[in-house]
Amino acid sequence: MSYTTSYYHIVIRTYRSEPTINEEYERELYAYIYGIAKNLKCQTYRIGGIADHIHMFVSLPSYLSLASFVQRVKTDSSKWLKANPHFPDFRGWGREYAGFSYSLRDKDMIVGYIMKQKEHHRKKTFAEEHRGFLTENGVSIDERYFLRDD
Considering the domain boundaries, does residue 94 fall inside one? Predict the structure, then answer.
């Protein structure tokens, strides 16, 4: 038997970073994504965000890659959002995503960060936040493609 754990802080944004996640109904979206993760046998510790992006802190089973998980979440939730009258302006998720690995000892820090998204974004734009995550995690940024969906 193999013993593995993999914890990820995942960030996905709306198409063109448009503010299409209605705050009044965002918990419905988070519950739906939680259900997707549960069906994939993932442990979700927190989901949160603002109108143009969401953050998730999850643990994935050993047989599920980060890319496969994100693809499932984006595909399934996109269909649900487009059919849901509470999200009339939603056109899809952005092309790219960010996923950073952490250890279980980082859980409280990441969960706390996700819980404070609305407060955090009163001072910092998504682009500033995203650039900071990439830089902090040693990801080089190609400006030609940074936050572009076309």
Answer: yes
Per-residue pLDDT of the chain (150 residues; tens, 9 = 90+): 678 889 999 999 999 999 999 999 999 999 999 999 999 999 999 999 999 999 999 999 999 999 999 999 999 999 999 999 999 999 999 999 999 999 999 999 999 999 999 998 999 999 999 999 899 999 999 898 888 887
Full domain range(s) for residue 102: 7-136
Which residues fall within 8 angstroms of residue 76, CB to CB, at 6 or more apart?
Answer: 32, 36
Alpha-carbon span 61 to 140, nearest angstrom: 28
Cβ atoms of 98 and 10 within 8 Å: the answer is: yes
In this structure, what CATH number is given to the domain that contains residue 91? 3.30.70.1290
Amino acid at 44: T
> How many domains does the chain divide into?
1
For 60-79, give one letter per residue: b (16+ CB within 10 A) or e: beeebebeebbebbbebbbe
Residue 12: inside a domain, yes or no? yes
Nearest to 45 by CA among 84, 79, 15, 5: 5
